[in-house]
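Q: Hi! First time doing this. I have a protein sequence and I read that you can turn it into a structure. Is that right? Here it is:
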Amino acid sequence: MQLNKTVNHVKREVGREVHSRLKSFENLSEKEWFSELCFCILTANSKAETALEIQKELGFEGFFNLPFSKLSSTIRKNKHRFHNNKARYIIEARKFKGIKKLIFESDEPREWLVENVKGLGYKEASHFLRNVGYKDYAILDRHILNVMLETGMLENKPKSLNKKIYFEIEKKFKDLAKKLCLSAAELDFYLWYTKTGKILK
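A: Yes, that's right. Below is the predicted 3D structure, encoded as structure tokens:
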């Protein structure tokens, strides 16, 4: 399998960095959990790179305390999309400052996130959970879907990802991870790297 060879090559190249990144997700503070939630709200339909720059600039204090106008202008200044909507969603998310406890108490954390946090779909909820230490969710962004399409794992690229389609594709992704003896989180990093040449989060 060509993809198997590609993943093994990337693993040799950046495996240590990926393992370090995954390890760093395991002991985040309450404030860091909330900051990651805001980061993932920002990534919806937008570039992760600019979302990361905004997160670096604002941190927990900015996400939690800035008024709407300043939050929106900061997002816009970084050339990030939907600045007003994203600012609104972040302000609404402030009621989940204790998100770490809420997630630990949930039997279905991803479902809870999708149902309760405005601005999060299954992709963003999966991204958030990966970034706080969960390893068994697939982040089906355009880069991952393109790899799956190019390697024959998908016949067609879906026009939209409702719950049924997301879960069907995620199963294929997780089956591949299992065959390669990787967690879904680790495989995501490797496939994303094949398309971008970057290790973000």
